[in-house]
Every structure is written in structure tokens, then in C-alpha cells.
Amino acid sequence: MSARALQRVVVRMHHDPALVAAVYADAGAALEALDLTPAERDLLTVPDRRAWGVDPARRDRVFEAVRREYPVTCALAQISVGARGPLLGFFSSPEFHRAVQSRRAITPAFGAWIEGSARAGRFGKKPTAEVARLESATVEVRRAVDVPPGERWVRAPWIRVVDASPGALELYQAVFASLRASSTVPSSLPRVGRGVTRVVVERNAAHEVVLGSVSAPLAGLLRRAEAPVAASLLHDAARELGAEPGDEPTILASLHADRLLVRCP
Amino acid sequence: MARRYHRAAAPTPWQHRPVPSFTDRLSDLPFLGLGISTEYGAHDGDGALDLRALQAAAPELAAFLEVGVEVEKGLDAHAAAWVSEGLPATYHFLDVNLDEPEDLDAHWLDRVRSLAAEVKPAWMCGDAGLWHFGPREPAHMLLLPPILTDDAAGELAEGIVALREATGLEVLPENPPGAVYVGDLHLLDFFARVCDRADTGLLLDAAHLAIYQRVAGHDPLAGLDGFPLDRVVEMHVAGGVVREHDGYPFVDDAHGLDVLPDTWAVLDAVAPRAPELRAVVFEAERNPLGGVIDGLRALAQRLDGTPFGAKRAS
């Protein structure tokens, strides 16, 4: 018996009427991927089926918590489909169900779902997908935890380097500013083009999340430090990316001062 | 009385530190009497209960405050003012899944200890259910009941012991509300096992128990005969509303003023047989003063003639 596995299915059923219907129709088929015995699965269909739906606002409440971390993505997506309801489709998505069943946070799972959906042609397509990728990085840096000090270098846990199409950062910033000022989306929006730019998403010392563009060499150097790396190897990387020989220690010190690189074990 | 000793986490892996049994620890728990509950911002709404006014009008009916706490929010101004005066309080957690060891993380425990130092609670308590899914995230407020199985009771008991040892406070699990209960145990059998394995007391919410009995198709008092009522340290009473969804009637645990007959029936059955009952909360934090006072008076009247009522009177 796995009470936790069963509990997680219960959570999923509370949020997804489609899963409730599937479990009551054929619990074995609906939950075959899980390590539950037939007797355990049977426990799920003992309650009156209607009882699963007595709190219809539950999904809205949870979604609201998620939406606050994806304000621009959700605003663009909602405009594209004309309603908030389709966004609640997240609760029937594989991303939601996998996150709950494996005890992962659902907020990042929403980012993956909405970006994937937008790239597949829904919710405003590419512009929404690009903004979702940026906001997913904001979700990650908000949750970043400090690393203990050491001799090696690593990209600061409170930053992410994101590849974005030209115009994505400007689109995000324009909509974010407008939502903040007037809770509306501007009628004229920056266009998202083809190609790749690099954006740094940072949770600064004041715990505000800020986004800015960054050069390709700097993005490359930060990516070389995504896992802990010795100073000598980072010096090599800096030279490969165009640094003048002898400048490497100064560059690393500067990035350390700017809170982009930190020391780690 | 011979002291019973239970194994517990010790300062070193090989040091055996005897821990007093629940029966022994009970002597450290004060009698609190009748109290009211709060959570962050609950008293800010229009028509919400004014704690100061209640205290001034009927101090004997508001002998302590049960402070509902999410560590990321902390205490609001009302709760902070109450505890700053050194008035009696209990700490009701709103943000921990006791059956998940990962949930008792260092950051959360640090914040709990810090807030407990401020509140100086007589004990900790809270719904022993699922407050959030996955890692602790803001604003989920999921609150689902536990799976009512034997192994879930064991996992919950381990969490209670772990939190008790980490905070040095008694931790009383509360039976949570729910619309759906899954498992092969009656809720009271489940919590009897939890109390036994964690060697702990219980916060029995009369309204939540009545909701469970209704959902399960039982009489309001079913299962109480076999339940160790000497484990009940605290009780909650709250008003509820019968609603309907798709033709299915259910009780909304609305914390209103109208206490349903099944809830009174549970209180009337338990209180006379709960010798260790030390605190009874009327959960009505978002209601106006006059109605709350009337509710507390009705509650006090029902408790007259019980061991709890006798202690209040003495």
C-alpha cells in the first residue's frame, strides 16, 4: 500500500474532472502506470462521484497563485483565446499530473505546459511561448537557494541565462509594465522576430527579479559555469570566448562583484 | 505513577534520551478554557470580529487566541498585538504536510521556532492533512484529509513526533475537513492509531467529524465508543452550511455562527467523557462581535457540567 501515491491521485482528481471520469469508468486503465493494487484503486471510487466536484472554485484558486508568477504569459494567452477558462486546461495536462504525482512544484510545470501549448499553435503562439520561457526563468530564480562558499566557481543560483527570440524581452517588458500600471495589455506590442538573443534573468540583492540582455560571450561564459568549475578552466573558457590573455582574473572578479558568478565547493 | 519511556531522536545517534509519555507530558499543558481563532487578515474584513472588543466585552469567553500561521506571512497586526501583551495563545499551523518528512525543512523549522518564540503558545496544533502539493508553494491552501489507511497513520505519527522534537512543543493533530475521504479505516480509528503511535493528544474538531460522518453515511457519533477520548486535549466548534452540488448535499465548513445539530451532538457526546480537555475554540473569526459572543455563550452553556466546565468554573 502506498498512501502517498494514493494521496497524489486524490489531489489530481480534485483538480481534474476528466481524471475523475476516467477513474470511475475504469480505474485500472486510468491509473495503470502507478504502483497501486486493484484494492487501492477501488478505494478511489467508493465516494459519491459528485463529491469530487463540490469545490468548483478550487482550480481557480490554485491557478491564481500560478498566474501571479506568469502575469505576462497569462495575459497574452487569455487575450488570444478570449477567456481565462482554457488556461485551466493545465489541470488536465500531463505536466500537471506528472508534477503532482512526483511531488514537484506545479508552478514550473505550468510554464512548461503553456510554452509547449503555445509552440504547438495555441494561446498566442510564438510570442506567448517566448514570454513563457522568460517567466519560467523568473520562477526558477525566485526559488533559488544560496550555495555555500568554496574554491570553485559557479553561475550564481539567482540568475538564469535564457535564449530568446529578438523582441521577446521587449515584449515581456512592455506588457509587464502596462499590467503594473493599468492592469491592461497595450494594444500595440513589440514584434518577436527570428534568431537568438540572450537574456539574463536575475533575482537581485533586493529580491526583485530583473531581466536584461547580455552579450553572447558573457552568456557563453556563464553557461560554462552552470556546474561548479575550477578557476583555470573558466579562464580557458573566457579566452576561447574572446578574452585577452591575462584579463581572465579581472573578468571573473568583475562577474563576482556583479553577482553573476559565485564561489562554491 | 511509573514513567513510561519512548525512544526518540537523541542528540547523538547512540545516546538514548528518555522521553516522557503523553500521560506525563500532559501535566505541562495548561488549561486554557474557551478561545477564539484567527488567521492572517481574518479580522480585517468588514464585519469581522474585533478581538479587542470581544476581550473587553467578555474576557471569560476569549481566554486564549488560536493563531493560524503560515510562516511566510507571519502574524498580522491583530495577532501580534495579542501575543505582545503576553495573552494565552496556541499555534495552529496552516502550512505543513505532517506525513511528508521533506516538508519539515530547515528553513520552515527556523521560521516556526522564531514565530513560536513570539507567540509563546501553550502547544502547536493543526489539521493533519495535505496543505499543499509538492514543495511548499504560496497560496495553495489545498487542505485535503489524509488517506485513511494504516500506513498513512504511521507516516503521520512519525511527522508529529519529528515536529514535536524539533520545536519542543506538544503537537496536536486535528482531524481535517473534506468532501472526499479515501481509505479503509474509519476516521476515528485512523486518529486513534495516530495518537497511539505518536503518543500524542488530539485536537478533535466537532464540525469536521460531523462532516466526515455525513460523507461516510454514518451516525454523527459512530466510532466514538472505541475512541480514546482521554487523548482529546482541544476541541473546535464552528458553524457550517448545507449546500448542494449536482444534487449532492454536503456541508461547507464555513466557520459561520450557525452550528449544525450534528456538530453539537459530537460536542455533547465527547466533552463529558474527555477528562483532559483543556481548550475549546469557537471558530468564527469573520463574524460580528454580537453573534460571536452569543455563540460562545451557547458553547459555554453546553460545556457546563462537563469536566471542562468544572475547570472553567473553578
Short structural summary:
Chain A has helices spanning 3-15, 17-30, 38-43, 58-67, 71-81, 94-101, 106-119, 125-142, 168-182, 216-224, 231-240, 248-257, and strands at residues 152-155, 159-164, 197-203, 209-214, 261-264. By secondary structure, chain A is mainly alpha-helical.
Provide an overview of this structure.
The complex is a heterodimer of chains A (265) and B (314). Among the domains of chain A are: 3-53, no CATH class; 152-264, Outer Surface Protein A, domain 3, CATH 3.90.930. In chain A, 52% of the residues lie in helices and 10% in strands. Chain A has helices at residues 3-15, 17-30, 38-43, 58-67, 71-81, 94-101, 106-119, 125-142, 168-182, 216-224, 231-240, 248-257; strands spanning 152-155, 159-164, 197-203, 209-214, 261-264. The radius of gyration of chain A is 22 Å and the shape is globular. The model of chain A has no long low-confidence stretch (mean pLDDT 95). By secondary structure, chain B is of the alpha/beta class. Chain B has one domain (31-313): TIM Barrel. In chain B, 34% of the residues lie in helices and 20% in strands. Chain B has 10 helices and 11 strands. Chain B has helices spanning 22-25, 51-57, 77-84, 106-119, 150-167, 187-198, 206-216, 261-270, 289-303, 307-313; strands at 5-6, 19-20, 33-39, 64-69, 89-93, 124-127, 171-174, 202-205, 232-245, 248-256, 279-283. In chain B, helix 5 (150-167) crosses helix 6 and helix 7 (206-216) crosses helix 8. Mean pLDDT of chain B is 92; it is low at 1-10. Chain A binds chain B through residues 1-4, 6-8, 10-11, 13-14, 43-44, 46-48, 50-56, 61-62, 64-65, 68, 99-100, 103-107, and chain B through 99-100, 102, 130, 133-135, 137-142, 144, 146-147, 149-152, 155, 179-184, 215, 243, 245-248, 250.
